[in-house]
Amino acid sequence: MEVENRELVMELDMGSAVSVIGKEKYHEQLRHVPVESTTLQLHTYTGETMKPLGVLSVRVRYGEQSKYLQLYVMKGTGPTLFGREWLHVIRLNWPLMHLETQSGFRDVLDRHAAVFSDELGRLLNIKARIQLKEEPTPRFWKARPIALARKPAVERGLNQLVAEGIVKRVTHSEWAAPVVIPIKKDGEVRICGDFKVKTNPQLDVGKYPLPRIEEMYANLSGGQQFIVIDLRQAYLQMEIDEESKTYLTVNTHRGLYQYQRLPYGVASAPAVWQRAMDHVLQGISGVQCYLDDIIVTGRTREEHLKALD
């Protein structure tokens, strides 16, 4: 992308409403452009609020297109982002971009084809442990009634959870939570344990921190190419240790089911998962995990492919 007659490498980010540049990169390439004040506040992927240092009015050229657009200056050394605001104005050459993205990565993808299977994945050698406060009191909730018209979908949902090894039928438990059953767009249902009524109040959630946006930028600084791996049903890829399964039992119209994988809705699940992923990925440069997203980068194409592999 040509910005103010200078070639500027930008990362296309459809999750970013605006286009941004780090302070260091601004001084390196665009310091001749005056910074104007702005009242804009941005909300990051991690829920934090960040205020730009200012905004630039820059001339952007792409092919035969030429537009004056706004580019926001941020603290730090994060990647220069091509956001949705520019995307509405600049028409990108999508076929060319697609070919460039596919080239060079096919061998890596082929070597790890099993990762893209439709089957639920499993995190190896690490199991989730649910810590309770001292002297917890078991609580047993009765199954909530289900509308007759919804029962067939609920039956299919339970059968699917059993088939995938996510839950297992049990005959007895001192602990039992009811379930909530939201309806999906396709008319099917999602069966979730309502752990806030009995397990979450007695959990020792712990203090394991999620990475801050500044830390993520620092870990990924210098990267020239970026790939985001979205882990499907991330928590459910993690098995639960035997003791913890007792606390993650749900009561349904068909009886008791015990979770074998880490379910959503458990208050400590984000910290448990983040700790596990940090352990798995430690020592790999150019990699940053935030819950179910893994960002992979490298200073060169070779470094990028090595980290991805």
TrEMBL record:
Ranges for domain Reverse transcriptase come to 163-309
* One Pfam family per UniProt: RVT_1
Tell me the superkingdom of the source. Answer: Eukaryota
From the Swiss-Prot or TrEMBL record, give the protein name.
Reverse transcriptase domain-containing protein
